[in-house]
Amino acid sequence: RNERDALTTQPPLPGGMGTVVRNSSVAFTLKYQ
Q: Which residues, including other chains, have CB under 8 Å from residue 17's CB and lie 6 or more apart?
């Protein structure tokens, strides 16, 4: 339970991570195309 709580408390900005992943995906798609 403690580990789960720590993991949930560590990423307070999931949107930021999503943006990074989105940018990576866009760059990857552009490179592939």
A: 11
